[in-house]
Amino acid sequence: MAVIYVALIVKGKRTYASVPAVLKEQVKEMLIDLELEDLITE
User: Containing domain of residue 9, as a range?
Assistant: First the structure.
């Protein structure tokens, strides 16, 4: 499920703030791995 949120964030359909709390850490790690840290906003 985290991969789906990452894809939606990259496409601009969702924001990091809208990610459910249980998935935030996984999504954050994936965005960092993709060098997209600038998309991590609360």
Answer: 2-39
Considering the entire predicted model, what is its pTM? Answer: 0.91
d(CA 13, CA 15) in angstroms, rounded, equals 7
Kindly give, in sequence order, each residue whose CB lies less than 8 Å from that of residue 41, ignoring residues fewer than 6 positions away. 15, 16, 17
- Provide the domain count of the chain: 1
Lookup result for tokens 């499920």: 1
State pLDDT tens for residues 2-39: 999 999 999 999 999 999 999 999 999 999 999 999 99
